[in-house]
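Lab meeting minutes (informal)
Scribe: AK
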Amino acid sequence: DGVTEVLAHRSDNLRDKFIEIPCSEDYDSHKRFADCTPRKCGRGVTDAVVTREEAERIRRIAERGLSLGGSDGGASILDLHSGALSLGKHFVNLYRYFGDKIPDIFTEEDFALYRDVRQRIQQRIAQVFGISSSAMYLTKPTFFSRMNSTGAKTAHDEYWHPHVDKVTYGSFDYTSLLYLSDYSEDFGGGRFVFMDADSNKTVEPRAGRVSFFTSGSENLHRVEKVQWGARFAITISFTCDPQHGIGDPLLR
């Protein structure tokens, strides 16, 4: 795996840590948007945008939603926008499948918190990369993930493969992850790994920590396999292309 350097230990309390890296050529083959398309690339970690208490409240939203389903394999997904929910080896639409139960599962306060946190993360990314927050748009998929040590049953469960978000998801320009549980306390393994030519750089999750980065191949990454426990996170991503923008999820 090469030499591994820890960018953020779980025990750190980071106000802001940012490492600038050269942009890949990926952006040259996409339409450029003023005030948004990355001119400066890199990766950041902050523990100062979302509190631990807020992260715990958001994790409870994920736990309640995932209690309706869950993958047979090690990776379960809940997408409040599209309604996609892992169920066995497949996905169902949460809102269609469990429509009558939704008011018992989620509240308006849950969605307001989700929206507030998303806006704060968006503002921090804009500030760090020197772009306009209003030129960024939330994009899909934006989803909760719960990972555990259960063996993979389908390709969707194989979350540990190295990938580039811009290649996997096209619309992504900036990716963020809000961690909702603690490395080495709630789960083992499951660190986030940036795979650089010279070494690997890891982020150890902690509840309330936000990791964010430009989505091109300058940030090839993977997640280690979870060895024990359950790792909760939410992926919130942004595009510069208004045609790929989506609204915040609404309680239906």
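Next up, CB showed the second protein from the same session:
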Amino acid sequence: VELEPVKLLSTQDHLEHSLAVERRRIRLGHVQVFQNLMQESNKEGDYYIFEEEDAVPTELTHVQSIELVLPPHANHHGNTFGGQIMAWMETVASISASRLCRSYPVLKSVDMFKFWGPSFVGDRLVFNAIVNNTFQNSVEVGVRVEAYNCEEWIRDQPRHINSAFLIFNAVNDKGELLPFPRVKP
């Protein structure tokens, strides 16, 4: 369906419109940067070798969770609430990040959150989270969500419905940022 252009009446409308245009530009830029990185990393022989003695293997941060979508998790059409999926994603990502920080990670930002498709009441949602990289005082956790109905579950044919990168900090009792150890991909 083609939508009619929005009629901007007030100064506030113009400001909000300008901000929305900029957010869209940045979001689309992120997609292009990500696609470029993926193309570059797929070149044969182009890979990163990481050698650091105290680095933690990323597989130690892998967390998987399975949720069953029930009627309270969905709207009147039977589609899972996006906010519910986001909450489950944040939980599994937080557990993944906590495997490195030995503290309670604090969500700083969510990047490249994308709904690829719907899920419905009765679907089993499989959440896979793993630390992608650590920085001085933050960690990036990638989360992928796959949905299965009963038939897809039996045939092991998932539907990729969501992906996101979540950035966490860890703080001590005084509110000071804690460093994260390096990871070995």
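CB comment: The mean pLDDT is 87.
No objections, moving on.
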